[in-house]
Amino acid sequence: MVQKGRFNGLMESMLETDVAWTLKNSEECPTEAKAKLFFSNWCKVVDKSRLKPMIKAKGLLKHHINNILNYFKHLITNAVSEGLNSKIQMLKASAQGFHNFESCRARILIYCGKPYMRIDSLP
Length: 123
What we know:
By secondary structure, the protein is mostly helical. The protein has helices spanning 2-12, 16-24, 32-49, 52-63, 65-74, 79-95, 101-111.
């Protein structure tokens, strides 16, 4: 009975992780104007939450808000380049070093989806 009471109390309480999760997973904004309004309201909610990690994240996002809002102007992200960079870093780590740049470049081109390029045609 004691554990059931403690469990019910826990379920009814507003845990900090629950608040942080809700703030992190807020809805998407289809336009720049809606994104600005959402971010402004989100910042107010974060301040009211008094969660230090969320307030720190808010500061970082505020510092980069113009770059974030650029997405709505161009509708592109750097996800593809980040993915390619991740593959390249993994390739470099598994190779444990290359003897020369040409060898490294050839491996990257082959590994990242350009196997049809001939190695001897590389500049």
